[in-house]
Amino acid sequence: MTAISGTTAPSVTSGDRRLRIAILVLALIGIGIAGYLTYVHYAGLKVLCLSSGGCETVQSSRFAKLGGVPVALLGLIGYIGILASLAIKTELGRVAGFGIALIGFGFSMYLTYRELFTIKAICQWCVSSAMLMTVLVILTAIRALREAPAAT
Amino acid sequence: MASRTKQKEEARARRLAEERARAERATRERRLRMIGGVVVSALVVVAVFIAISSGGGSGTTGLQTGNKASQLTTQVDHLLKGIPQTGARLGDPSAPVTLTYYGDLECPVCQTFTLQGGFPQLVSNDVKAGKVQVVYKAFQTATQDPNVFKTQQVAALAAGQQQRFWNFTELFYRQQGQEGTGYVTDSYLNGLARQTTGLNLSKWQSSLGDAALGNQVQSEEQTGASVGVNATPTLVFKGPKGTAQPSSSAVPNYQQLEAAIKKVA
């Protein structure tokens, strides 16, 4: 990152740098949210919630687990995966980051649908995570589709 | 000569440009193929996740029949054996500590608490010993339709008129269905009633129309709301030394329940 020369397609490289920073920040926020929810789940604590009981209802519904694994943990793994993909400097890293974000986005949309129409309760933590995943899928898609910066 | 050299150079430049373009095209195609593959794989993963999530949830069974049903009845009878019941109360009415349990029969966390949390041990130790009495109060959370909530709660209270409230409730939690699937129907409730040992079915059925039971459900909900209940299970211990709630856990274990009892006893 430090050795970017101004001669090799500066707009692409600096754009990629900005994208990477944005993805890094969003993934870190995601890790914070999913990490908190995972911790709360395993510690058997109640979720801090702005609205009355919404989070509790959502976290305690059957959709909070996928085959026995709390979805918060899956989210945590996803965000860590996206973060890790940033460290892989090749095309594979960019495409993998996009793949993980796409899975996260798809599943988040499904869970949001369940929140709205089945559980009929909204948990701000989950909505925040769904929004993060939405932005992440867009950013990682741009990164994956773009010409490789400073291609060798 | 000069023009030939120039022509050669031009041809070379053209060739290089073509090669570069070809290479770029190949790279782009490779990238698009890769992305396409990733998109397809991601969609498959999401579809599998959704299938698992919408499919049979863990621990959700629905109404059982045959051997499995009689096993559940035996389990419940064993747990409640020798413990007095009056309405929604389990245990000796003169027990010094009262646990008020705000619950929703369709709530999965209530199910976890009642079947796997500290509750079974509380019943077989403290309630059986006459130290603690448990009073169940209705509070709608997981059940979506208020009418269904009332119906199922009235069904339990109707069993309570025959000192079988807790048998019915325990059987309900043991056969709780998938949230949001509308599994609580008249035939589901009838099935539970049939499984309840010693319940006079026709008497139970006529109690279902008892307006007093419906009013009781409503007043229990109002009581819950007035004391700030916003989730289920909410557990409040009351004893000679005041009231206490077990820690901050949604599904308290036996030690956490004991700690709360100690505070009030």
Structure, briefly:
The complex is a heterodimer of chains A (152) and B (265). Chain A is built from five helices and two strands; from the N terminus they run ααββααα.
Structure description:
The complex is a heterodimer of chains A (152) and B (265). Chain A has 152 residues and is mainly alpha-helical. Chain A has a single domain (28-145), classed as de novo design (two linked rop proteins) (Up-down Bundle), CATH 1.20.1440. Chain A has helices at 10-43, 54-59, 71-87, 91-119, 124-145; strands at 65-66, 69-70. Chain A has a two-stranded antiparallel sheet. In chain A, strand 1 (65-66) and strand 2 (69-70) form a beta hairpin. In chain A, helix 1 runs antiparallel to helix 3 (71-87), helix 3 (71-87) runs antiparallel to helix 4 (91-119) and helix 4 runs antiparallel to helix 5. Residues 1-9 of chain A have low confidence and may be disordered. Chain B is an alpha+beta fold. Chain B has 2 domains: 1-55; 66-264, Glutaredoxin (3-Layer(aba) Sandwich), CATH 3.40.30. Helix content of chain B is 58%, strand content 10%. Chain B has 10 helices and 6 strands; from the N terminus they run ααβββααβαααααββα. In chain B, strands 1-2-4-3-5-6 form a 6-stranded mixed beta sheet. In chain B, a hairpin with a 2-residue loop joins strand 1 and strand 2 (89-90). In chain B, helix 2 (66-80) crosses helix 6 (165-174), helix 5 crosses helix 6 and helix 5 (146-160) crosses helix 9 (211-226). The interface between A and B is medium-sized, with 34 and 35 residues.
